[in-house]
Amino acid sequence: MSDGELRSVQFRREREAAWRELEGLVIAVEKRGMRALDASDARRLAMLYRGTLSALSVARAISLDRNLVDWLESLCSRAYLCVYSSKRSASGALAGFFLRWFPQQMRRLRWHLLLAFVFLGAGMLAGFLLTLGDMELFYSFMPAGMTQGRNPAATTEFLRDGLYDVEHLNDSLAAFASFLFSHNARIGIMAFALGFVFGLPVFYLLFYNGLSLGAFAALYHSRGLSVDLWGWLLPHGVTELFAVVVCGAAGLVLAQALLFPDRHGRLDTLRVRGREAAGIALGAVVLFFIAALFEGFFRQLVTDVEVRYLTATTMAAFWLFYFLVLGRRGAGT
Amino acid sequence: MSLVDERAAIDSRRLNTPEGIELTVRLAPIGARAAAFVLDWLIIIAVTLLLAMLVVLAGGNGSFTAFFLFAHFLLRIFYFPFCELALQGSTPGKRSQKIRVIDSHGGPLSPRAIFARNLTREVEVFLPVVAVFSPESIWPGAGGLIGLFAALWCIALLLMPLFNRDRLRVGDLIAGTWVVTVPERPLLEDLSARVQQPRYHFTAEQLGHYGNYELHVLEDLLRNEGEVDRDTWDLVCTKIKQRIGWPKDAWEVEPLPFLQAFYAAQRARLERGLLFGVRHADKNEAREARQRSGGQSSRSL
pLDDT 10s digit of each residue in chain B, 301 long? Predict the structure, then answer.
């Protein structure tokens, strides 16, 4: 009977052991992730996957045993997902991201950043001038919950004390920092994700944030506290405003992909640009984190105006160095 | 049966592997995705509550509150991407539903795609929830009408997977990903290997009536041997005998061994055809082929 055996039956008999071995490895990975395999098992998985995939293509051509073909297809799909899922080591990916990719993207997106910054700046200017003209406008520009009594009705004394407040210098500080971080980072992520609604909400968000900041500045300016206010804002504000602008730019990248797709068509453009923009927004979240650390701790601990300005300048210089210099060498490769 | 096949055709997508061989994946049903999401959210909420309890037990002072807020934020933003990175495009919720995320162009699922599809969740899911319950906090000073409009718009985003062919969320659209289900099938014994010494034999003429489709139907029937009743066996047997012109003098056969032998013989015949590049998809193609060759032979006579 053996010479009358079907080619497909013989084919299966010769290879089934290898397929079963692949299945065992796939099940192990599905249960516990790639760390379930040591180096030689991982190599074996990749090898068996390629072998089984080509067996599938042969089986499709010569076998009419549907159960076998379906099973091979399902096994190949599962193995494919094991082989082609995140292979890079987490630490290597992180280093590559922050030391090369992120600064490179910042340089590439300079026009998006500039546009986002222009909107934020325009909001600030408008908020500042309008509020100077009519203090009542302060209430419409500023969300009521954020001011904590720092409004035109407050005395200059109160406003001044707010800037040099060492009173609640206790453990509520950390809570404050982490509240600020989650709040700001969420706004940033929002600005990015809203990009896919053609960018309009991004402009709105940037402009609106600018308005509040401008109104705030106008209030302190009218009391002659400008120098003190900026000393209070800038040490963390340099980083934070930059992060807002970066998120805005990421949103604009999405909007651009939707409105002006390149030759690959709208969906493909969105797919490529969307991944970039998400990476950028993620970098901005880290910026927000750094800003919140400064805002929560440094601002409350250091009340010396000179030191505050010095810190702000140092921060600005650091970010300029980071975004203008880092990763240049790798850019060509 | 045909209904199941039709659904399968609507849901299945071809996936080009880098090796150049196409695989078929099945899009995950909306219900499974919703269930996975709810389960993941329950996990997030449970962990958050646990953290909150720890904070309260620890006296609830500032630094513990800070830790809580920070941990909650990290959990909320990074739970999904980190799970999907660690578990091959899956999360505990997705795993319970046997669904996972893949790159729609067949490439590796990059970390950036994972982050892209999950960061947009903040807008897709949380914005609608906030929009419904407190529109004021999204658009300060928004009146009732604008609030209503914003809420509708947000809900439309939330329901987007229902309105496109590939069941994409906005995040899937941006990241270029699909959520698919990978059914696990058992590998069953080869049916033709069971027939060692066939009691029934068929001529080449008798095996020229059916194509691959009918063979697969017969395979399904034989694989579900236990669930098929006697009448069905008889009916199928009679139909086949009539069609292939089974000799009247040996008309009575034992259905199951007959069908098994017929399956083995028919498959051998069709597979031999495949080796020579002859493929009969179903009985109609088989008939056309028969007529063509019949016509030729009559001309040659």
Answer: 444 555 566 788 888 888 888 888 888 988 999 899 999 989 998 998 888 888 788 776 666 777 777 777 778 778 888 888 877 788 899 988 888 898 888 778 887 788 878 877 776 776 666 666 665 555 555 556 666 766 676 777 778 788 888 888 878 887 888 998 877 778 887 777 777 777 788 887 888 888 888 888 888 888 887 788 888 888 888 888 888 888 888 778 888 888 888 888 888 888 888 888 888 878 888 888 878 776 554 443 3
Token pair 């067949």 is found at B106
Residue of A nearest to B87 (CA): A33
The CA distance from A167 to A186, in Å, is 29
> Is the Cβ–Cβ distance between B88 and A30 less than 8 Å?
yes
For chain B, the domains span 7-120+169-181, 191-300
Q: Is A10 part of the contact surface with chain B (CB cutoff 8 Å)?
A: no
Q: Is the separation of the CB atoms in B28 and B177 below 8 Å?
A: no
Q: Is A92 on the interface with B (CB under 8 A)?
A: no
- Tell me the CA distances in angstroms from B86 to A38, B25, B95, one per residue in order: 16, 21, 12
CB contact under 8 A, B192 and A65: yes
CA dihedral B107, B112, B118, B123 (to 10 degrees): -120
Give the residue extent of every domain in chain A.
2-83, 91-331
Cβ count near A319 (within 10 Å): 17
For B98, other C-beta atoms within 10 Å of its C-beta total: 16
Residue A168 contacts B, CB cutoff 8 Å: no
Residues 25-44 of A with CB under 8 A from B: 29-30, 33-34
**In 3-state terms, what secondary structure has residue A235?**
helix
Residues B67 and B55: beta-carbon distance below 8 Å: yes
How far is it, in rounded angstroms, from Cα A87 to Cα B296?
59
CB contact under 8 A, A274 and B186: no
Q: Does A6 touch chain B (CB under 8 A)?
A: yes
